[in-house]
Amino acid sequence: MSAPTRRERLRATTLSEIKDGARRLLVTGGVEAISLRAIARDMGMTAPAIYRYFPNLEALVGALAGDLYDELRGIIEAARDAAGGKPVDQLTAMCRAMRHWAVAHPAEFSLIFGNPVPGVAAFTDACADAEHPGARFGAVFLAPFLALTRGAALPGPPADVLHQQLGCHLTPLTAKHGELPIEVAYAFLSAWTRLYGLVAMEVFGHLAWAVDSPGALFETELAALLGQLRGAPDGGPPAGNGDGPPAGSARH
Amino acid sequence: MSAPTRRERLRATTLSEIKDGARRLLVTGGVEAISLRAIARDMGMTAPAIYRYFPNLEALVGALAGDLYDELRGIIEAARDAAGGKPVDQLTAMCRAMRHWAVAHPAEFSLIFGNPVPGVAAFTDACADAEHPGARFGAVFLAPFLALTRGAALPGPPADVLHQQLGCHLTPLTAKHGELPIEVAYAFLSAWTRLYGLVAMEVFGHLAWAVDSPGALFETELAALLGQLRGAPDGGPPAGNGDGPPAGSARH
DNA sequence: TAGTCATAGTAAACGGCGTTCACTTCTGAG
DNA sequence: CTCAGAAGTGAACGCCGTTTACTATGACTA
């Protein structure tokens, strides 16, 4: 298994060249610009040859989405590892890395976090249990979140109200991560949807009518969110020691 | 100007028939399923005839997006008007109406609130100042929001910190609505992005890995959000007197 | 009423697309 | 050396958006 044959090497390079071409088209023209004929043309091939590597266009787009999930997850994990040991700094760096990647790669972000595209939807549904890419994302954010909120007075309704309102509707989340207190699970989902809403609205252009520099709004919102989690009175910034600007004006 | 000629009447009906067909295709197959040839086929026409009504496919999709904006805005305004005079009840009803429409019409929601689609992006950029559809949406939510938060102790950083961090980056929003205190503008944007993130994640299927009944999470989150705005200690539900379920399990 | 003219529609065509099928070339294992 | 299978080609089918030339017809005017 150690020595790949010559054919296997050629196949691997061709496969990655196909996905590189697909991503180039995605970046320049959006999802609908990805076409087998254009990819093959850029490679000096003909379109039917791609069918030796993917059963159809949708499967190619799905595989591309999977690669993008892994890429973003790696970036976020790297930001976490470079942020020191304090959970609040780790979470801050991870959220900033997420936004930074999304703003720098809007087409890629749209592919994996926007409208379900046929290929991506199939890819998302196919691995719905343990290896779901969204679930792995959640797990990455969940660990420092748990560390941060351990023993803290979380915002939101008290546990009994949560049990009454949410009941067992969070089982898909709690079943994956052992015994997760319901107030922690709720606080995590609340924070995750807040982060998503902020980043997605910026990337999709739905914030341009109201905000001049979305980066500033993001930093303010991030500070408020992490401050609320720690029970702070919504005060100062969360120790922006890492790479991101504590109160800057990120450029798009 | 009162009596439209026969030709004008025919033209109007044909135009709405075209948009009806486009919407039908949008609902059944997503944005990429909208095709001039399919619309014309359903109408018993040929595709080039549609060019008498729209310069190209993108313009048709943009017009459809504009209609959907108006439809959703009308529904939200109706929910507001049916919710009585208390701002908190109005906001509750409006948020519920927004989610209800989004869940009931995922394709339409995706078209106007998801990834920028060529035609929709052009439509969105074209009227970027006063008549921006997102801006009119914001205005609809802004009025009861202002009434609710008047004199209340808003969550989030104090005004001086906001001035330092956000500075004049909120001018696109404040310039449209007179003198808007910066803490109100920030609280409004924070609430709006939270609502968007919650609804968009549910509609796009990005919440299925964690939550069983997104409706329950929505109700909990909505109660917490409105409770925070009123300065309440994150307690009881916000007087669900209207139509929506106070703690129900909305079906998808 | 007869004439004119813009309007609404058609048919044909062009290029691009995903996908299939028959066919050729070439690699690598026995 | 042989040969099965992998990789790639070319042609074709049906779909698509869009353009062009052309026709019928409703509406206004002399």
From TrEMBL, chains A, B:
Annotated HTH tetR-type domain residues: 12-72
Keyword Transcription attached: yes
DNA-binding region: 35-54
Alphabetically ordered keywords of this record: DNA-binding, Transcription, Transcription regulation
Comp. bias (Gly residues): 233-245
InterPro entries: Homeodomain-like_sf, HTH-type_TetR-like_transc_reg, HTH_TetR, MT1864/Rv1816-like_C, Tet_transcr_reg_TetR-rel_C_sf
GO MF annotations in UniProt: DNA-binding transcription factor activity; transcription cis-regulatory region binding
UniProt cross-references to Pfam families, sorted A to Z: TetR_C_33 (PF13305), TetR_N (PF00440)
Domain of life of the organism encoding this protein: Bacteria
Residue numbers spanned by region Disordered: 229-252
Record protein name field: Transcriptional regulator, TetR family
Organism: Micromonospora haikouensis
